[in-house]
Every structure is written in C-alpha cells, then in structure tokens.
Specification:
Layout: H1 7-12, E1 16-18, H2 20-25, E2 32-36, H3 46-59, E3 69-72, H4 76-88, E4 92-97, H5 102-110, E5 114-118, H6 123-138, E6 141-142, H7 150-157, H8 159-167, E7 173-177, H9 182-194, E8 199-205, E9 240-244, H10 246-260, H11 266-281, E10 288-292
Parallel strand pairs: 2-10, 3-4, 3-6, 4-5, 7-8, 7-10, 8-9
Antiparallel strand pairs: 1-2
C-alpha cells in the first residue's frame, strides 16, 4: 500500500518533466526540463513552503504547540500559511495594508486568520513593525519569510535534493525566479555544494530590477519582483540575473500550455523565457532545468 499520511507529503515530492514540445517549437536541445514545484490550494510552491517552515520552526524549538503565528503578508504565502496554521492548530495573525480589498480580508478571516491592518504608505517596514507589535502582545512567532533562513532551509532540504535525485546533477544551469529569495538561495547552496559547475540563474521582472540594480516599477508577474532585495537572497551563489518583461512572461506561460500541457503561471513563464534566452545565447549550455513555482487555473 502507498497511502500518504498527509496531503502535504504529495507537495514535498514534485516531478521533473521534459519540455519536448517547447524545445521542438524553438529548435532547442531536448534537455530542457521543468521542476513542477506548484501544488495545493494556492496552486503555487508556497503551500509546501508554509507548512515546511512551520515544521522546521517546531523542530528547532522556535515554535511551540498552539503558539500564535504572525506574518506580514496578504499574498499567496498568506493563504498557504493560513491553511497550514489551521492544519497544525496554530492561531494566525496576518498584518497587511488597509487597502487590501475587503473581499480578500474576508477570505483570510474565513480561513481562521485574524487581521491587523496598517497604512499602506508605510510600506514593508510598516508591516514588519505591526507584526513585531503583534508578537510582543501575544508571545507569537514571526515567520517573516522574506528574511527567515527557514525559507531557504526548506529548499536545501526538499527542492534541491529532489532536483538532484531526478537529474543526477547532469545539468549546465538551473533557472529560478526571485520573490522572497528562498528558492534560488536554498537550491543554489545545495546544488553547488554537490555540483559546483551547475550555474544558477536568477530571474526578475524587467520592470522591477531590484536584484540586478536597475529601475523599480510596477509589473504583472505575481510571485516575482518584490521591489527590494530580500534578506534571504544569497548573491554569491547566483551566476547571472536575467530580466524578463511581464508580456514575455505571460506569452511564454500560454505557449508552454499549448506545447506541453503545463498550466504555467506568469512567474513560471518568466523563468522559461529566461531559460530559452540563456540556451540560445550560450552554445555551451545544453541541459537546463527551470523551477516552475506557480500554475494557472482554467475552467
């Protein structure tokens, strides 16, 4: 019998697939792969990450049974964390700007979270200050996934080893998008420890180049380009940073759905677009793996 003890077990072991249709369309070597990290309620890699970070915090004695969890987020990680906290019986306080739509605030409330609002003009620092106040008031644990090493630690323990097992390290490059910085840091540190010749390529929106040191602006690639360099981001394991426009990301996501039946999100489309460009411009790079951290849903 192969019965999982928990749905989360299915999210910790994700597949690597060959992108044969996409390669044929663009005359690329048939050694372009995608690690499908997405799954769960948010259709992203954050479902496994949220539960995994809580488990690691418990393992290290940072989070006690029944202790309140606090986070400064209103995005997909907040949704994933609300579900993970309900599953593990931890009260949750989510700090978010007051301009988050009311319907979204109600969704978090239905998931069991309490909400603490801030004025949006204070930005990320205002959210973190509000979160620290909630921690002091409740004796809670601040996840702070943009600046918590348990984020890359999850990828050192899960994503990196999964990729190594599936490919045997026979890769020239791994391409990953940068949101919180945990994926590329954790995967890069693990892979380079065992396979130092594998190049790590970071991807960010062309319109918001905080990692590459360019201009900052609005973009349409959810999950990438936070507008600042996350504390989790380790630049020393990154060999190159490639910017991709929002339009390129969306176009590539739609294309790989048609060529390989993969419902890639714009963030995954951005990573694939960067990987194609990398292979087209570097003849010595023949075997590339893309980390797809999100999917689109269609009805």
């Amino acid at each position: 019998m192969d019965i999982k003890r928990s749905y989360y077990e299915t999210l910790y072991s994700r597949p690597v697939v060959q992108l044969g249709g996409y390669c044929a369309t663009h005359s690329l070597p048939q050694a372009l792969y995608a690690y499908l990290a997405f799954g769960g309620a948010t259709a992203s890699a954050k479902d496994a990450l949220a539960e995994g970070m809580l488990a690691l915090a418990t393992e290290k004695g940072l989070l006690k049974p029944g202790q309140t969890v606090v986070e400064a987020s209103s995005g997909s990680f907040a949704v994933a964390l609300a579900i993970a906290c309900a599953h593990s019986r931890h009260p949750l306080i989510l700090c978010m700007p007051a301009n988050v739509p009311t319907v979204r605030q109600r969704m978090f409330t239905k998931l069991g979270a309490k909400i603490a609002l801030t004025n949006h003009i204070y930005g990320r620092k205002g959210l973190e200050k509000r979160a620290q106040e909630a921690v002091e008031r409740t004796g809670g644990y601040f996840v702070n996934y943009f600046a918590n090493d348990l984020n890359p630690e999850f990828h050192r323990r899960v994503t990196g080893p999964n990729i190594a097992r599936a490919t045997g390290g026979a890769l020239d490059a791994i391409v990953a998008g940068v949101g919180s910085g945990g994926t590329i840091t954790g995967v890069g540190e693990y892979i380079k420890a065992w396979y130092p010749d594998v190049r790590m390529i970071a991807v960010e929106p062309f319109e918001c180049q905080a990692i590459g040191g360019g201009f900052l602006g609005a973009h349409s690639i959810p999950g990438l380009g936070a507008g600042f360099v996350p504390e989790n981001y380790n630049p020393y394991i990154v060999d190159a940073v490639l910017p991709v426009t929002s339009q390129e990301a969306c176009d590539t996501a739609r294309e790989v759905l048609q060529t390989d039946a993969i419902p890639a999100s714009p963030s995954a489309g951005a990573v694939l677009c960067a990987a194609r460009r990398l292979m087209e411009e570097n003849a010595d790079i023949q075997r590339v793996l893309c980390i797809f951290s999100g999917k689109e849903t269609y009805e």
